[in-house]
Amino acid sequence: MSIQRMASDVETDLAPSGQTFRNEWRCPYESMSWSQREDQMSYLPSTMPSPEPTPDDKPFWEACARRELRIQRCAKCGLFRHPPTPVCGRCGSTSSEWPEVAGTGTVFTYTIAYHPTHPALKGATPYNIAVVLLDGADEVRIVSNVIDAAPEEMAVGLPVTLVWEEAGEGMFLPRFRKQVAPG
Description:
Order of helices and strands: HHHEEEEEEEE
Distance between the termini: 48 Å
Number of helices: 3
Strand order of the largest sheet: 6-5-4-7-8
Number of strands: 8
Structural class: alpha+beta
Shape: globular
Helix content: 10-25%
Radius of gyration: 18 Å
Low-confidence stretches: 1-25, 27-40
C-alpha cells in the first residue's frame, strides 16, 4: 500500500516526492461547549483500556478520580518526579508527598498518530500524543493529548490547560486543551 493511499486524508510537508495530501481532520469537539466536551465526549474511543494503577502511581490515579492533578514530590529534597517512583533519584529518600499542581503547561514535544496503535483506535486517527511540561513542577512532563488541536495546530511551546476526561469506572484522565489568551 502506498504512503499516499495510507495518508490520503492528511496534509503534510513531509509527503514523499513533493506530494501533498488533503486535510479533512475535524476536531470532534467543534460544535460543543467546553462543559459538554468535558462531560460527554472522549478524545479517544471509550473502548480504550483504562490505566491499571500500580502501588507507585496509585496516589496519582486516586487524585485523578477526584479531578486533582497531584504530582509526587520528594519530602526530603523537594524534587518533583513523574512517573512516580518509590525512591527519589536526587537524594535517595523514600519519603514523598503529593501536592496539587496548577494544571497548566506547554507542549514539550508531540507526535501525530495516523495509524491505530491499538484495535480500539481504528477509525480515530489522526490524533495527537503530547508531552506536556507542567508549570510549577520542576521539569515534570506528562504524556497526554491536546483535545482541541488539529494536527496542523500542534506546536512545541503551545500553552495548554488541564481538562478531565472520564475513562469509566470512576477513573478520570488528565487531558489538555489550548490555553486561551486573556483579553
